[in-house]
């Protein structure tokens, strides 16, 4: 009898031990399933429902998919978190995770002089070519250096924008000599400034929000931008000549705080790069739709659209990059890029 009681007691003890262990395992599994997603913010200056907005939302969706919902990206448009300067500085401080806008904005970061090469006149022959080369190992080295010096990293450059063109108020541009003497609003990017000074223009630095008024009041004779910025901002209401010079092919850049980047696993980094590629495809598609309709929009508004002699412009600007070679970017980089085009 006593032996039976002991046996029963042992059985109860074993069952209790197994039950406790099972509960602990279940609790552990439940905790693992409840791990919160990493929440991230991405900001832009572009308007809601713009191509960039749609690109960012596609990015957020793909980041969640690629990470199996471990990454949750919140999108902020319309400059809600500040202008480009503010967004960049917030990423440097680590108070904002990511930004999305024109890749050229990288040149405003400390240590980014090598990336002036993005605006070397006629460096690329198409937007597709630019996207392929800028996402290569050659440019990754430059992005790594900028990240170390500035605290902001370009982790991808997917999204083909409209090529840059010249828009003028009072005369058509058909050849390089037509630019001489014009007062042109050009972004504060050294090599772009040199490009137009080489053509004999007077470069006037103005913010994007000042261009429309400056065109209307005769403060400037023209500006250089692509369809994607010029048409939504209605510059064609004041400047009635458009010259498709295609002197620079631009991309959109996916920027991230280096502090955030260093805190990510390889899997999370890969998820963000894949998401940037998906978002860039959306941006490219929507930009192309705008480009396809742009000439009609301009002509309907009374704008004279011309296709200048690009070979003449290339010849006139052929030596501009040499003023920066070995100073802003490594010696021989232009030649290496040209070989990648073959």
What does this protein structure show overall?
With about 350 residues, the chain is of the alpha/beta class. The chain folds into two domains: about 40-160 and about 250-290, D-Maltodextrin-Binding Protein, domain 2 (3-Layer(aba) Sandwich); about 165-250 and about 295-330, D-Maltodextrin-Binding Protein, domain 2, CATH 3.40.190. Helices cover about 45% and strands about 15% of the residues. It has twelve helices and eleven strands. A six-stranded mixed β-sheet has the order 7-6-8-5-9-11, sandwiched between helices. Strands 2-1-3-10-4 form a five-stranded mixed β-sheet. Helix 2 runs antiparallel to helix 10. The longest helix has about 35 residues, at about 265-300. It is globular. The termini are far apart. The model is unreliable at about 1-5 and about 10-35 (pLDDT under 50).
List the helices and strands and how they pair.
Elements: H1 2-33, E1 38-43, H2 51-66, E2 71-76, H3 84-93, E3 98-102, H4 127-134, H5 137-150, E4 152-156, E5 165-168, E6 183-185, H6 190-198, E7 202-204, H7 208-216, E8 222-225, H8 227-230, E9 241-243, E10 252-257, H9 258-262, H10 266-300, E11 304-306, H11 310-316, H12 333-340
Helix pairs in contact: 2-10
